[in-house]
Amino acid sequence: MMETPLPELEAILLVGGQGTRLRPLTLGTPKPLLPTAGVPFLAHQLARARASGVRRIVFATSYRAEMFCEAFGDGSAFGLSLEYMTEETPLGTGGAIRNAAEALSSGPDAPVLVLNGDILSGHDIREQVDMHVAREAAVTLHLTEVEDPSRFGCVPTDDDGRVTAFLEKTPNPVTNRINAGCYVFTRSVIDSIPADEVVSVERETFPSLIEGGALVLGYADASYWLDVGTPAAFVQGSRDLVLGRLVSPALPGPTGDFLALPGAMISPEAKVGGGSVIGARAAVESGAQVSGSVLGDDCVIQSGAVVVDSVVGIGARVDSGAVLREVVVGDRAVVGPGNELLAGSRIWPGIVLPECAIRFSSDA
Ligand code: GTP
């Protein structure tokens, strides 16, 4: 007997958010397009989706919608067919899924994959879809475990994997298992979300499906997972891809201690590592130290400067002897000589910080 081929899987990619937690990086570029390990963040997700059998993806866009089509076009470079559906005003995660579904060709019983556009995940998408289909679920949520679940949707399940509650950002989580931002919906369930309304799947759709007795399943696993919503997590994601902690077919070079993009100039007397990316034509001068950081194209790290776990924007400059730890420097900003910036500092694009304006050392 001939085996029935797997039906082609369609996906919706949620990319309409404003990425407020990543400002100023997201002032000009949506979070899913930020350069991450040398390519737009989404390139890693698209490559992984393609590898798990997805062939057609509808982007649910809103904030700076046109930039997605400029970056990815019709998707042929990725072996994918891409469509773009834009909300005039953001409709929330549920409203966005409903709106994007207008462009799907899947029938009412088909599984549809839905991905948050800011997640790096090594889980087996195909296995999640297979579980959904085999158990005829309404929705199957990817679940992962984190140390502090209070910032996420906490998702308890019973022994059969059935989700018993969906508790979005609760101060008293009942489990460390959280919503990992990758769902399989049966198409007809998407069609039951009200059209042209602001709806949150996390606050409305999932809780009401569970209350109404629909089969909502949890697909739990322990593979690599990261939500890149904050600057610290964004830097970590880029670092993990460069170091090979998460394998990505989209990485533009071999994995290693750092990734230098074309035209990057790194002095032999500089110390660069920890999974850093050195942007195209960026310069790291003699005696500078760069570790675990993302340096944008055309930026300059002058001699003796120290940049650790930070993002330095396109065309920005970090002057001699400046020290940055867990800092975001916006595009074209200048950190003058001798400044010392600590965790959480954010320099807005184009700002020039004068010499020794900020120091934390006791000798200052
Ligand atoms: P923050 O503002 O920093 O919280 O980031 P965000 O705007 O991306 O919000 P959040 O991380 O909660 O969003 C989860 C995913 O849904 C992201 O991939 C967003 O791009 C996407 N998203 C959130 N709201 C909307 C929306 O109204 N429309 C669309 N199309 N996508 C959305």
Automatic annotation (TrEMBL):
Domain (Nucleotidyl transferase) ranges: 11-240
Q: Which GO molecular-function terms appear in the entry?
A: transferase activity
Entry-linked Pfam families: GMPPB_C (PF25087), NTP_transferase (PF00483)
Keywords, in A-Z order? Transferase
Source organism's superkingdom? Bacteria
- Residue ranges annotated for the Mannose-1-phosphate guanyltransferase C-terminal domain, each copy included: 257-337
Q: Does the keyword Transferase apply?
A: yes
Coiled-coil residues = none
- Please give the family membership noted in the entry: Belongs to the transferase hexapeptide repeat family.
Name-wise, this protein is: Nucleotidyltransferase
Question: What organism is listed for this UniProt entry?
Answer: Streptosporangium subroseum
